[in-house]
Structure prediction request, 555 residues.
Amino acid sequence: MNETSGETQKTVDVLVVGAGITGIYQLYRAREAGFSVLLLEAGDGVGGTWYWNRYPGARFDSESYTYGYLFSRELFDEWEWQEHFAEQPETERYLNHVVERFDLGRHIRLGARVTAAHLDERSGTWSVVTDDGGEVRARYLVAATGVLSVPYFPDVPGREDFRGEAYHTGLWPASPVDFAGKRVAVIGTGSSGVQIIPEIAGEVASLTVYQRTANWCTPLNNRPITPEEQAQLRAGFEAMREILNTSLAGFLHQPHDRATFDDSEEERQAFYEQMWRSPGFSKLTSHYTDLLVDPVANAGWCEFVAGKVRSIVRDPATAEKLIPKDHRFGEKRPPFVTGYYEAFNRPNVSLVDLHQTPILRFTPDGIETADGVQELDIVVWATGFDFGTGALLRMGIHGRDGLALADHWAGGPSTFLGIQTTRFPNLFFPGGPHAAAGNNPRYNGDQVDFVTDTLVYLRDHGYDTIEVGSDAEERWTRMVDEGAASAVFGEISYYFGTNIPGKPRRYLLNSGGRPKLFKEIARVAATDYRAFRLTRSRPASAASPPLRAGAAVEP
Ligand code: NA7
Prediction:
């Protein structure tokens, strides 16, 4: 263990960047494993996604108790989630509680945005610079910077000319925005847009929703957790943890055992009703087994959802605009909603279909389309994120021979396990590109566990530098790319990076899912880390075991 601190420079074993759900867990695990640790966080508080996305209506669409940490039985027992799908303030409180409870705050430096990270090849250490003038030297750099952490603002002419207030859902201010009596626009109808729209619709003077692509929104079906359910959760902790730690997507929902046309028309409609009333992601994970593979089966469910939209939204023209015509259910990450379609029945809410009337420009007073200028007081950008690689490529990371990660990945990311990339030894990025798709904390947690086990292995075997081999990286990246054609989420999804103009079209999740991750991690352990090049930058101590065959030794 090594920790030194001077006025301008600090040295630690493990430097974590990002105090989101992954970074906090990594900090905890690395410290518990006996490493000296520091976490740098750009925000003025911890929480990551749950710090920045504090817009009205922001909430989980994974069940709260399946999203929270499972590493401590005591933590699980003492935190009573209020709702099956917790709202942002509760999650932010929870993450602050975790930091306090495990005394992690003293290892966290807030308000410190990483602007550069350079590898010192001689020592195998990283020198990391922050915008507050600090510099940290670390043997291992763990970028837990998230996949949805760089907000995207479309390049609309005149955007800077607008004189009203403007906010991005992913950069929401700490002090509440006063919507009362204001003329408001929401641009974007992804998961964030469809959460904020019903939340503010009753408060504003007018709400104009600018929709480019309609989404297949279905009810979240949130409700408070009853005292009986709280007791059941505690009694069933071990069983629940087992399911969550091994299931495909990290949810409790059980897969269905029937395909669409195993059922009669009547049974099918009853099942669709049951799905409509089911919680959150179960509409993907517990649906008919052929929902995502048989277009005819998928169309049946889409027709059912379209019927629901038509039955809720009173204006037929608005209803038709809200029904997707260009993609099937599940081709994009489906949002889950509370009162979304109902909001369009309010007299003060209107929908602009950007395919029919695109935004021409911003004016100082509002937004201009072919229909004229809509005068506005507040514009909400719910236009998403530079997914997957956005944060990593903006951190100024430079590896061997000064190679910039942004250049290394100019054509899209190449990784092994979504955790390491060649030419960047001792850099890990759990929860980054090529991670699995599902309930984020579960598979990001798998990656953090692997990183921590790896660091312990290195220490135990006298190594201090680890770099994935190009064979392993190519194998994993090929698996991701080849699997992308049959991945759950289709090419129009931001999971391919296609929402960002000029971004290479590459699949940014792990198309092999969690099972592939588990399999490869087991293989790494069984083959004594042969996928990696393990070296030591200083002579092994007498107590250290000899280098394994084939391992390189650096002076
Ligand atoms: P999303 O899901 O990426 O949604 C972004 C929305 O913004 C979506 O409706 C986009 O339409 C729209 N968008 C993007 N660019 C434009 C332009 N130029 N003009 C108009 N509309 C635009 O981001 P969210 O924040 O809602 O959700 C992100 C994740 O957070 C979500 O998956 C959950 O994991 C939580 P498009 O569909 O591209 O036509």
Q: What stands out?
A: Residues 440-460 form the longest helix (21 residues). Residues 540-555 have pLDDT under 50 and may be disordered. The pocket of NA7 is lined by residues 148, 154, 169, 187-193, 210, 212-213, 333, 354, 382-385, 494, 499 (CB under 6 Å). The chain has 17 helices and 21 strands.
